[in-house]
Design a protein that fits this description.
- The protein is α/β, with parallel strands linked by helices and 167 residues long.
- The protein has one domain: Rossmann fold, CATH 3.40.50.300.
- It has 4 helices and 9 strands.
- Strands 1, 2, 5, 6, 7, 8 and 9 form a 7-stranded mixed sheet that branches.
- Helix 1 packs across helix 4.
- The radius of gyration is 18 Å and the shape is globular.
Length: 167
Amino acid sequence: MEFKAVAFTGPSGSGKTTLIEKIAKELADHRALAVVKHDPKDKAHFDRPGKDSDRFFRSGADVAVLSPTRTTLFSHRPRTIEEVADLFGEFDLMMVEGLKHLPLPRIGVFRGRIDPEYLPVLQAVAIDGSIDRDTLALPSGIDILDLNDTEAVIRWIDEHAIEIKRN
C-alpha cells in the first residue's frame, strides 16, 4: 500500500497552517487526507492536567482515547512517518507541516521576505504580494507559487508529491 506525501515549511506566522487548511477543505470531499504537524517546542497540549488520560500518560504509558468522533494517541516514543501513516489507516495524501529532515517535496511558505535558511530543503515557495516576485533571487529549480491560489498549489502537489510505501 502506498500514499502520496508533501511537506510545508516556513517561519512561524507565515501562513503554513492556513494554506494546509485551505487545501484540505478543497480536497476533503474527494480524497482521504492526513496531516502531520511538527511541534518542535513541545507546546501543544491535548488534555487538561489531572484528567484521566493525562494521568495515564504521566504514569509512563502510551494512551489511546477513543470517542465517537475521534481517536487521540498520546505516545512517549517518537514515530517514523510510516508508523504515523499506519495509525491513520487508509488515505490518499499526507501533508506534513515542518519536519525539515524528512526527504519530501517541500513548499516553503513566506510573507514579507524569504528566509534563505529554508532554501536548501525547498522545491517551491508559496508567497503573497508582500514579496516582490521581480526581485526574487531563488536558486534554480525552485518553483514560485501564489500563496492565495489554492488550486495552483494543489496542481503543484499533484505533480510533485511522492509515493511512500507503508510498512
